[in-house]
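// run 5 | inverse folding | seed 20
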C-alpha cells in the first residue's frame, strides 16, 4: 500500500513538474512572439489590438 501511494506521488510530481516547464516555455514563446508582433505592427496599432483580442 505504501509502495503504491509513493509511486503515485512520484508520478504526480513528475507530471506537475513537466507541466510547469511547459508553461514556462509557452510563456517565453508568447513573450518573444508578442515582441516580434510589436516590432512588425507598430505602424498599425488597431490591427495589433484586433490580433490580440
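// decoded
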Amino acid at each position: 500500500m505504501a509502495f503504491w501511494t509513493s509511486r503515485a506521488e512520484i508520478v504526480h510530481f513528475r507530471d506537475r513538474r513537466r507541466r510547469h516547464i511547459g508553461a514556462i516555455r509557452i510563456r517565453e514563446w508568447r513573450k518573444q512572439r508578442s515582441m516580434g508582433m510589436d516590432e512588425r505592427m507598430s505602424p498599425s496599432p488597431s490591427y495589433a489590438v484586433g490580433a490580440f483580442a
